[in-house]
Amino acid sequence: MEAVAVIVALMFAVFVALGVIAVVRSVRAVKRGVDRTVTQARRTVEDTRLKAKQYVQPGAPGEVAELRLSLRTSMRATQEALRAAAPDDPSLSEALALFKRLSAHGQEIDADLKRLEAEPDKARVAGSLPELRERVERVTHSADSLRWAAQDRARQFADDDLALLSEQIRMEAGALRHWTTEEEPQAAPTGTGAGVRTPGAGVGAEGPEAATTAGAEPERPAITAREAWRQPGYSWQKTRRPESTT
Question: What predicted TM-score, i.e. pTM, was given to this entire model?
Answer without folding.
Answer: 0.56
